[in-house]
């Protein structure tokens, strides 16, 4: 098993605490000959690809026929090497696709990978997860291993799988084995591949954990067991809450650096030379993606149901929500410095996906930035070759500028800088707001 030191700021005592980890070591041959992955989104599709082996039959199940067509034609947000591997797997039959739920009944293992967003009021939206689990329970049979990976609040696995299975007369831990193993997929980051990323498994019983870990270990060299599904569920929330708080702090430190005339990237890198007690993040225009803007609200909602609060997390999420508004305000300030009114001013937002190198628009700060600039009367456009067309929250459809010319814009806002994309035109733009803090190719750039 690959060694992974604990990432803890505990005054150098990580080695002592490592003894608390329960590493899974397989003691018997793999049992699951067939695996069905439920949901083929940003988690499910890579999961299905990672599970392939000469000894296992892997089926990807999704209720969206459009999604299955996109996968078959390669129109998916995967790096080119993975897209080629996916195409080869489909051609060779190593990965099968289906929208027929009856495939679940033939599976030895079922892995649920469906989205768990929040609604406009930041309340958990379990509609997709609930429907998926209901389907899984309906087709469950004795001998199956059922693993939930979708990020959710503590108790969901027991509520949506363990209890309904028991109501069907299937004894969890004897007839079927149920566990939670949170996904750890970092889209677009080649440094964090699944095989080298440890996973955590929490089973409804000890036998459930063992059986689930056998399946999960097909995707990673390192699996650690925790005492329950609830412990694994809260582990995932803690991971992403930490990241949210850290990013909110990074943005706040960037504001402090601006007040003091300092470079926040320089300060963060310098602090990062300390080998213990520090884990820095870089500031930016906001926080997007499927996890960080959403997952902390699962815990906040659950605590709120019990009349409890988490002030640090609450403040971090407020700060994250407000960040795009700061970008809009800063654009207004740059226009005022140039003696321009909002009305008629032309602003280009460069890069609208939430992360460099991916075509994922979910929760992207670019959406409220574009909407906010439109609200104050600015003629705003965007440039992103990865996303040729987008829709704002109010339904407004926008298309990417095909080939920007810097002098056509009063302000260019650098939101997401994709690798391999030419941003040389920005040098000709009279005002450049670098919301990434790292685009130093434009000498006259300004930051938030």
From TrEMBL:
Q: Does the keyword Membrane apply?
A: no
Q: What is the protein name stated in its UniProt record?
A: Nucleotide sugar dehydrogenase
Family, according to the entry, reads as follows: Belongs to the UDP-glucose/GDP-mannose dehydrogenase family.
InterPro entries reported for this sequence: 6-PGluconate_DH-like_C_sf (IPR008927), NAD(P)-bd_dom_sf (IPR036291), UDP-Glc/GDP-Man (IPR017476), UDP-Glc/GDP-Man_DH_C (IPR014027), UDP-Glc/GDP-Man_DH_C_sf (IPR036220), UDP-Glc/GDP-Man_DH_dimer (IPR014026), UDP-Glc/GDP-Man_DH_N (IPR001732), UDP_ManNAc/GlcNAc_DH (IPR028359)
Q: UDP-glucose/GDP-mannose dehydrogenase C-terminal domain spans which residues?
A: 348-441
Q: Which SUPFAM superfamilies match?
A: 6-phosphogluconate dehydrogenase C-terminal domain-like, NAD(P)-binding Rossmann-fold domains, UDP-glucose/GDP-mannose dehydrogenase C-terminal domain
Tell me the Gene Ontology biological-process terms attached to this UniProt entry.
polysaccharide biosynthetic process
Q: Which UniProt keywords apply?
A: NAD, Oxidoreductase
* Entry GO MF terms: NAD binding; oxidoreductase activity, acting on the CH-CH group of donors, NAD or NADP as acceptor; oxidoreductase activity, acting on the CH-OH group of donors, NAD or NADP as acceptor
Which superkingdom is the protein from? Bacteria
The root-end lineage is: Bacteria, Bacillati, Actinomycetota, Actinomycetes, Pseudonocardiales
Native species? Saccharopolyspora shandongensis
């Amino acid at each position: 098993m690959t060694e992974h030191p604990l990432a803890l700021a505990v005054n150098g005592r990580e080695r002592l605490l490592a003894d608390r980890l329960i590493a899974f070591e397989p003691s018997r041959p793999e049992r699951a000959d067939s695996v069905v992955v439920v949901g083929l989104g940003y988690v499910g599709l890579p999961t299905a690809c990672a599970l392939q082996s000469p000894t296992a039959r892997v089926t990807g199940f999704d209720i969206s026929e459009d999604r299955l067509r996109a996968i078959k034609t390669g129109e998916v947000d995967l790096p080119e090497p993975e897209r080629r591997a996916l195409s080869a797997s489909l051609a060779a039959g190593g990965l099968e696709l289906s929208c027929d739920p009856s495939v679940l009944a033939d599976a030895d293992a079922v892995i649920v990978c469906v989205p768990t967003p929040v609604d406009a009021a930041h309340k958990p939206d379990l509609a997709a997860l609930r429907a998926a689990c209901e389907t899984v329970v309906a087709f469950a049979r004795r001998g199956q291993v059922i693993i939930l990976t979708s990020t959710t609040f503590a108790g969901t696995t027991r509520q949506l799988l363990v209890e309904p299975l028991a109501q069907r007369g299937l004894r969890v831990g004897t007839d079927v084995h149920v566990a939670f193993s949170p996904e750890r997929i970092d889209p677009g980051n080649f440094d964090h591949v699944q095989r080298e990323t440890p996973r955590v498994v929490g089973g409804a019983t000890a036998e459930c954990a063992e059986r689930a870990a056998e399946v999960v270990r097909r995707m990673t060299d390192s699996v650690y067991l925790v005492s329950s599904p609830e412990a694994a569920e809260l582990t995932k929330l803690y991971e992403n809450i930490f990241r949210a708080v850290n990013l909110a702090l990074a943005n706040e430190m960037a504001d402090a650096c601006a007040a003091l005339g300092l470079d926040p990237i320089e300060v963060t890198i310098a602090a990062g030379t300390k080998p213990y007690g520090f884990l820095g993040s870089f500031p930016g225009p906001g926080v997007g993606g499927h996890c960080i803007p959403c997952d902390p609200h699962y815990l906040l909602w659950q605590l709120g149901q019990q009349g409890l609060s988490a002030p640090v997390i609450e403040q971090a999420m407020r700060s994250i929500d407000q960040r795009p508004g700061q970008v809009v305000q800063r654009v207004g300030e740059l226009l005022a410095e140039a003696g321009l009114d909002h009305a008629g001013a032309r602003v280009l937002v460069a890069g609208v996906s939430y992360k460099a190198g991916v075509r994922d628009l979910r929760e992207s700060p670019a959406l409220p930035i574009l909407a906010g600039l439109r609200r104050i009367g600015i003629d705003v456009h965007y440039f992103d070759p990865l996303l040729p067309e987008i829709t704002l929250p109010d339904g407004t459809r926008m298309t990417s500028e095909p080939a920007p010319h810097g002098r056509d814009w009063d302000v260019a806002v650098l939101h997401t800088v994709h690798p391999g994309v030419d941003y040389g035109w920005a040098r000709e733009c009279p005002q450049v707001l670098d919301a990434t803090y790292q685009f130093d190719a434009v000498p006259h750039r300004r930051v938030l």
